[in-house]
């Protein structure tokens, strides 16, 4: 059950999303997309957020992410914990390590750079996971998968996009990030899927966009 911060007033989103229906959210990767997803989710009322990342904030991370200049050299998850507390009053669970197969439940968002990391997480999906969201960026190209692990069609479709290594992956699929509006757009698509799925079980299985061109693909 979500424990809402009584200091926050969500009245302007009443007709869109009730934070009381939010489920626990695990984010794997606290880089450009993961940091933005965590911040947006917290600001819309998600109070149970767990995030994994072992890296520290470097100068090239700041333009594309939720991090601040003062976060340079700080572990990403620790910096994000402070940022989210400041913006929403929410205390996230910050795990300063790589995800290595820990048990998952409820809703999981993948914000990683390698196919191997995606494959590991997918191998650990279990009946307690209701939705897996996988984000991929390459410059202005955005790809977001939203997969129900109990839906065979979803799973079979997604497996097709897991069946290769990072080295074999086309550049468009992973590894190259571009600019803040794209990271934030990715977070918006992720959180739109969360809202729709938690409200009525709906989501978009695969969303693709050339963000700067404002073009769906």
UniProtKB/TrEMBL annotation:
This is THIF-type NAD/FAD binding fold domain-containing protein. Signal peptide: none annotated. The keyword DNA-binding does not apply. Keywords: Membrane, Transmembrane, Transmembrane helix. InterPro entries: ThiF_NAD_FAD-bd, Ubiquitin-activating_enz. Residues 25-195 form the THIF-type NAD/FAD binding fold domain. The chain crosses the membrane at residues 20-42. One of its GO terms (molecular function) is ubiquitin-like modifier activating enzyme activity. The keyword DNA damage does not apply.
């Amino acid at each position: 059950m979500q424990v809402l911060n009584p200091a926050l007033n969500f009245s302007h989103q009443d007709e869109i999303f009730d934070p009381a229906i939010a489920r626990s959210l695990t984010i794997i990767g606290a880089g450009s997309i993961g940091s933005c997803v965590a911040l947006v989710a917290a600001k819309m009322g998600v109070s149970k957020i767990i995030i994994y990342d072992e890296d520290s904030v470097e100068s090239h991370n700041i333009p594309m992410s939720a991090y601040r200049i003062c976060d340079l050299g700080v572990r990403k998850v620790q910096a994000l914990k402070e940022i989210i507390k400041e913006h929403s009053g929410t205390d996230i669970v910050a795990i300063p390590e790589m995800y290595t197969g820990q048990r998952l439940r409820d809703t999981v968002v993948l914000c990683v750079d390698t196919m191997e990391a995606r494959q590991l997480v997918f191998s650990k999906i279990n009946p307690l996971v209701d939705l897996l969201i996988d984000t991929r960026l390459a410059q202005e190209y955005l790809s977001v998968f939203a997969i129900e692990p109990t839906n065979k069609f979803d799973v079979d479709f997604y497996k097709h996009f897991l069946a290769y290594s990072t080295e074999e992956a086309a550049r468009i699929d992973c590894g190259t990030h571009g600019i803040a509006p794209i990271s934030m757009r990715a977070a918006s698509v992720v959180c739109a899927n969360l809202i729709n799925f938690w409200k009525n079980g709906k989501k978009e299985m695969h969303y693709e966009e050339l963000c700067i061109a404002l073009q769906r693909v």
